[in-house]
Amino acid sequence: MKKQHQRPTEKELEILSVLWEEGPSTVKQVHELMGNTTGYTTTLKIMQIMSEKGLVNREKEGRIHIYSAVASAENTGGELLNRLKNMAFGGSSMRLVMGALGNSKSSKQELREIREYIEKLEKGEE
């Protein structure tokens, strides 16, 4: 029986990133796109576990299995961000954003888009 909504490990997130970028893929395709950082059988085993955890769907097409991500990148990212916010920033959105902006140089375009997004939030548009 598949378990739902389990948090992905770091390696599982790498695999999900490939599936989000490339769409449904075979183990071989994912393994190659990850740069062969682990052995093929390790990638296969991780993807089988991900299927059992409900993180990916596995469809059989002839002799091959095609894997696809269950949750979107946006949903998974949102869950991980909320977890980070709660664990590392005491639940404070302000501390999270200030930490993110303070750790890297944001472009003027990014800062403009952030301001526009904040204005939308203040107006209740998002």
Walk me through what this model shows.
This protein is mainly α. It is 60% helix and 10% strand. It has helices at residues 10-22, 27-33, 40-53, 73-88, 93-102, 108-123, and strands spanning 56-61, 64-69. The protein has a two-stranded antiparallel ribbon with strand order 1-2. Strand 1 (56-61) and strand 2 form a beta hairpin. Helix 2 packs across helix 3. The termini are far apart.
Number of helices: 6
Distance between the termini: 37 Å
Secondary structure: number of strands: 2
Uncertain regions: pLDDT < 50 for 5+ in a row?
none
Q: Please indicate the percent range of residues in DSSP E strands (runs of 2 or more).
A: 5-15%
| Overall SS class | mainly alpha
- The helical percent reads 55-70%
What's the arrangement of strands in the largest beta sheet? 1-2
Roughly how many Å is the radius of gyration? 18 Å
Main sheet makeup: 2 strands, antiparallel
- Quaternary status: single chain
Tell me the series of helices and strands, N- to C-terminal. Answer: HHHEEHHH
Q: Taking all residues together, what is the mean pLDDT?
A: 89
Gross geometry = elongated
